[in-house]
Specification:
Length: 65
Amino acid sequence: SLFTEGDMAWAAETKTDQALVAALKKGNRMVVTGTSKRGTKTTDTYSLAGFTASHRAINLACNLE
């Protein structure tokens, strides 16, 4: 589970974030399901093509690697 606010989402613990990133690096698509405040259920599918390179670039730009 992720917490959301506006257009952002995050995990409660760093360990969960790390597991999520590891799964995203291994996968080829991500399916996100959610429920709006009004009870509308949604399912969105995203390609993970380029995720690993993008994640690496972000970490380098932020001096995290």
